[in-house]
Amino acid sequence: MSSTFAKKIILVGNLQGISEPVLRFGCELILTSIFGTLILIVLSIIIGHPIVWLFFLMGFAPLRTTAGGYHADTHTTCYCVTSLMFLLAALTSYTFTWYRFTYASVSVFSAAFTIMFAPLAATNKPLSPKRYHSNRINSLIIISINALIAVIFTVLNVVIEEANMYFAGIFFASASLGMGKIKKYSIRRKAK
To answer: How does pLDDT run along the chain (192 residues), one tens digit per residue?
Structure first.
């Protein structure tokens, strides 16, 4: 699909000087992001909370984008892992009792994993030193903002399901760092 879109964009836009593989990769990123979001929207509707996907992504996406983490070998595996994380987040958010200190605990967990492991790039797509530094700084800014939000909710003694999903998203983005580190270690060990 991304190859077809890239060819049509070049043809329609009269962009003969543009690299088709680069454009194809960009189209693939856009399509996978749209498809992944649609899966979460459908799951939200199925579980009876139609906008809960938004709060999960608000917590998950910023940290996951800058800090990196687990990279699945296929798009299907990626969708399955992300969907499982989302469903576990929804289960914990709507089934278990959250307390005001839960947000701070998630924030501390997130900060620890981010400080230890971020940014964690995909094995086949290493980061340049400049990009590494930029992602590291952005990850630290994001965990600081999340910590501030956690402190505000804790001081105000506010516990709401939307915030539960937001912090569950943060938790799973941070857990993804641990999962990614384990995968990299496993790959290195098999290579020896």
So the answer is: 777 777 777 767 766 667 777 778 788 888 888 999 999 999 999 999 999 999 999 999 999 999 999 989 888 899 999 999 999 999 999 999 999 899 999 999 999 999 999 999 887 788 999 999 999 999 999 999 999 999 999 999 999 999 999 999 999 999 999 999 999 888 888 877
